[in-house]
Amino acid sequence: MKKESRHTEPTFHDIWVVSQAAGNLTNQACTISARHIQDGIVRLQFNREVAYYARSIVRDVEEGRKTVDQGLIEIKEEQRSLMSQSMEVARKGVGLIAGALQLKTGAEICAASLGTLCAVAGLPMIAHGSNNVYENGRNLWEGRSDTEGPVRKLYQSAAVKLGGTKEEGDIAYGLVDIATSIYSAGRMVLKPDSWRLFRYVDADYMRAFKSASVGGFAIDRASEIFTAGDILEGLNSRE
After folding, report:
1. Are 54 and 103 members of one domain?
2. CB-based burial of residue 60 (10 Å sphere; 0-12 exposed, 13-18 middle, 19+ buried)?
């Protein structure tokens, strides 16, 4: 009895479906590269490599080396990989900008309070902001995701000395990071049009988030979401 062929001959519709998916992959690569790759030559090379890869899958399906399902699965996996890399780069960028905002806000708190709130709020924000700028900046520059700044290492060291683990130090670092962000958004600041004869009154103040730019507010909230995700991941790893 003759053994049946493993791969059936693809129909015109099969080839069209795979070609359509390959085109979507190429378009996605172009969108992601335009967002993250500044160098035009490098961006063009990246787009070309993804296009060649997509076409090679279509060719394999046409020539029967892959089934339609296998081709679509490979394309889908590549799309997921591209999105994952794009999200990782975006996350590092958000962390870098949010860290710079933390640093700036911490310095403003120290200056506005004439030092009275510096130790309680200003210095922690400056420390965390500097550390976040260092970690995310180095991760972006070197294409990595495991940089640990000096402030994070202090949390890890303190957790270990108290009988805990480095992961618990990371959780504590994340909680303080979120706490400083919430404090920054909710603190009272002077209204842009406020003035005083002898001293400011309550009506001269407003919550900081009301005067924040849309972009700055969105970056702060996105940073909090990413940090909360890291905390949940750390908690789950302990179970």
Report:
1. no
2. middle
